[in-house]
Amino acid sequence: QVQVVESGGGLVQAGGSLSLSCLYSGLRFDDYAMAWFRQAPGKEREAISCINFSGDLTYYTSSVKGRFTIARDNYRNTLSLQMDSLKPEDTAMYYCAAASLRYCSATWRKAIEYKHWGQGTQVTVSS
User: Fold this and answer.
1) Cα separation, 68 vs 32, whole angstroms
2) What one-character-per-residue DSSP string does 32-96 give?
3) Half-sphere exposure of residue 63, counting CA atoms within 13 Å on the CB side?
């Protein structure tokens, strides 16, 4: 049985930083690409970043590129998201998820391509 423990998040002022983590167990973590999504109230879930199985290929949505950094530690089965220069519009519930493939596909932004979701962690950025 796959278990996901998501941590991090919280309240931060605009311009600040936060770090999120997801610890996976019960699956071959290094066999799958991984991604981070977020969902703000009243909005659809949005893909923000994807990383391939080995960690050497990463993708970002334009709104977070240059501010967020996705990473993985395949020895510790951990996915992370470092978020810098946070803006009020980054306020959302953040989720990690596992892809079905080793590489981020051309349609990596589609939530339907992912499984084994984290429980979500709230990030709130005050202005």
Assistant:
1) 21
2) S-EEEEEE-TTS--EEEEEE-TTSS-EEE-TTTTTTEEEEEETTTTEEEEEE-S--GGG-EEEEE
3) 11
Q: Please identify which residue in the block is written with the tokens 């079905």.
A: 100
What pLDDT shows up at residue 22?
98
Question: Residue 110, Cα to own-chain centre: how many angstroms?
Answer: 13
Give the integer Cα–Cα distance in Å for 89 and 104: 25
Q: What is the pLDDT of residues 74-119, one digit of tens each?
A: 999 999 999 999 999 999 999 999 999 999 999 999 999 999 999 9
> Can you give the pLDDT at residue 30?
96
List of residues 6+ apart from 25 with CB closer than 8 A? 2, 3, 77
| 10/57 Cα distance (integer angstroms) | 28
Mean pLDDT (whole number) for 14-41 = 97
pLDDT value at residue 72: 98
Burial of 44 per CB tally in 10 Å (0-12, 13-18, 19+): exposed
Taking residue 11's Cβ as centre, other Cβ atoms within 10 Å add up to 12
